[in-house]
Design brief:
The longest helix is centred in the last third of the chain and has 41 residues, at about 495-535. With about 600 residues, this protein is an alpha+beta fold. It starts with a helix and ends with a helix. About 40% of the residues lie in helices and about 20% in strands.
Length: about 600
């Protein structure tokens, strides 16, 4: 089971956004030199709106990405002054057309973020969803081409509690940056091209040691395509902070000093390149769909999501490390020939210049699975990708980061800028970080591990939930998209820890039922064999029948396993005709409603692979 096959699962049924972010070789976002920006110096933005009474205490935020800027909004609304430092350059205006287009550097760099129910609610809580949503594109369904298929299968999602929205990361950053400047006024100070080192975490005993302290230095990019990699100046400025929020993503310049990191070895490494597509306006290409295709041998997986509402798409091409196209300076003619042969429906959307530039550019890797054991130290807190990094399934990473911000706001509101607020944040979100990473890693295991940890549980959950929905919950992916009522009757998403415990309970109930059934079946067979043996006077028949049964089951399991292990997760779920609650939504048979038909299809496929 390959990662790019499994990624297709996300869009197949349970989420129209399989990859939270599509990343390619980044262009430098640095300004020519370190810059300082305050709301008073930016004339293009409106004056600050009325908010809580200002405090003299300052919150320091390291990182001006989505989670850092969202945290700034939260702290500003609570009345605090905010200092923000980032290694990169000032964000662009979100309405600037150069943020995304195939013509304006789209081949070299773009990065899409999918906002599901979790992210949309968090941004609504922060009061910015209305402005952010104006830059988003809807994803209302999926069109998928199975290996070797000339016709794609389209499905419009009608069972979702929300509509997934997608936008370029730079537009999200620009929209949040604009809002920070609007709300902050003189209370916000943003410095770009800056590196931050923590010298004291505020976890000491004396009053002086109870404040966090940092050193700020100018940071100059290394190479034209640097992304957060910079040469740090010798000159430094020492500063203090009431609370420090580390939201610097993969940079993790602060996180490494906060606590131990649990990092998993990536046993399913894949690399990728992104490709800009301009879709024609036609019935074949609905601009609100996620498009995907893959090869039977697992070599190629292509997944595309809308970057604008005008037909600009971002396609991700996932490859194995050893693939001849998985390198910088790949052969453009070979890439074109491969696309013409195995992905012709997409090949016609890519002109020769774009194909040449895609082949030439460097590859990128999906992030590894890792999380911090503790998200706080003294008066320092870590959130977002700096606290928990996952491969981009279901949009969980970015959406979870925004949930981190909202929770931190609740703790600061209750405890002020204190170590107690940081500790309470860790109690609420530390377990979530661990559960998020472990759940996501379970979707990514290769080969037999992937079948056991991912596909087989989907099958069992589909069968048992279909038979007894009041006793067994939907599968893990559906649970991540589902919601429940809180004490006030409001719909809220299940926490990652809740999903883990609910599925553990399901596994226990399933094992109990299956074990009981097998035990009863064994007793029945044994009794039947004794009767037969006594009736015919041939005791060897018991051994013969038992051996035949074991042989039959072994062959059946082998064929069933072989059919799925080389099948994409997306293809498995594309066959389903049920929604996230296990209800039928179409006529096509699927694993959750017609297992016999599914098995017959898989056996037919296996015969084709075996040469008839």
């Amino acid at each position: 089971m390959t990662i790019f096959r499994r990624i297709a699962l996300v869009a197949a049924v349970f989420s129209p956004t399989p990859l939270l972010g599509f990343i390619v070789t980044p262009l430098s976002k640095y300004a020519n030199s370190p810059t300082v920006v305050s709301a008073s110096t930016v004339s293009s933005f409106a004056a600050s709106s009325a908010i809580a009474k200002p405090s003299e205490e300052a919150v320091t935020i390291v990182g001006a990405g989505p989670s850092g800027l969202a945290a700034a909004l939260q702290m500003l609304d609570l009345g605090y002054r905010v200092d923000i430092y980032d290694r990169l350059g000032e964000p662009k205006d979100p309405s600037d057309p150069s943020v995304w287009s195939a013509e304006a550097g789209g081949v070299e760099k773009f990065y899409l973020i999918g906002l599901g129910g979790r992210g949309q609610k968090a941004l609504s809580d922060l009061g910015v969803w209305d402005s952010v949503s104006t830059y988003c594109s809807e994803v209302v369904g999926r069109k998928d081409w199975s290996p070797g298929s000339e016709e794609g299968v389209e499905r419009i999602f009608t069972d979702r509690p929300y509509t997934t929205m997608v936008l370029p990361r730079d537009k999200l950053v620009g929209a949040l940056y604009e809002e920070v400047l609007k709300r902050g006024g003189e209370r916000v100070n943003i410095e770009f091209g800056k590196d931050v080192t923590v010298t004291a975490y505020g976890d000491g005993v004396s009053d002086n040691d109870k404040r966090c302290k940092i050193i700020v230095r100018d940071c100059y990019p290394v190479g034209k395509d640097a992304d957060g990699v910079c040469e740090v100046a010798v000159e430094e400025v020492a500063r203090e902070c009431g609370l420090l929020i580390a939201a610097d993503g993969a940079g993790r310049s602060v996180a490494d000093g906060v606590g131990d990191v649990v990092k998993y070895v990536d046993d399913n490494v894949r690399i990728y390149k992104t490709i800009p597509l301009k879709l024609p306006k036609s019935p074949e290409w609905n601009w609100k769909l996620n498009f995907s295709a893959r090869t039977a041998d697992g070599r190629f997986n292509l997944d595309a999501l809308p970057a604008t509402a005008e037909g600009d798409y971002c396609a991700v091409m996932l490859l194995k490390e050893t693939d001849p196209l998985a390198k910088e300076g790949a052969d453009a003619e070979e890439m074109r020939a491969d696309f013409d042969r195995i992905l012709p429906q997409f090949s016609k959307l890519i002109d020769d210049d774009v194909m040449r530039r895609v082949a030439a550019k460097p590859v990128a890797r999906l992030p590894s699975f890792r999380y911090l054991k503790r998200l706080n130290r003294g008066k320092v807190v870590v959130l977002g990708d700096a606290a928990h990094s996952v491969k981009p399934y279901f949009g969980l990473g970015a959406n979870s980061a925004l949930e981190d911000v909202v929770e931190l706001g609740k703790q600061v509101k209750s405890h002020g800028l204190s170590a107690e607020a940081a500790s309470s944040f860790n109690k609420e979100r530390g377990g979530e970080a661990k559960a998020l990473v472990k759940l996501s890693r379970g979707f990514d295991r290769p080969g037999a591990l992937g079948f056991v940890s991912f596909i087989l549980p989907l099958i069992f959950d589909g069968i048992f939930h279909g038979m007894a929905p009041s006793i067994f919950s939907p599968n893990t992916i559906a649970m991540l998209q589902a919601s429940r009522k809180d004490a006030d009757g409001n719909a809220i998403a299940y926490s990652f820890q809740e999903v883990v415990w609910i599925k553990r309970l399901d596994r226990l109930k399933q094992a109990t039922l299956v074990g009981g059934f097998l035990g009863a079946l064994t007793c029945a067979i044994s009794a039947s064999l004794r009767i037969v043996a006594k009736a015919v006077g041939k005791t060897k028949i018991e051994v013969s029948l038992a051996s035949s049964m074991v042989l039959f089951l072994g062959v059946a399991v082998r064929r069933f396993y072989a059919s799925f292990i080389d099948n994409s997760a997306g293809e498995v779920l594309a066959k389903t005709s049920t929604d996230i609650n296990g209800k039928k939504v179409g006529k096509t048979g699927g694993i959750f409603e017609d297992n016999e038909s599914m098995i017959m299809r898989q056996r037919s496929k296996q015969r084709e692979r075996d040469g008839g």
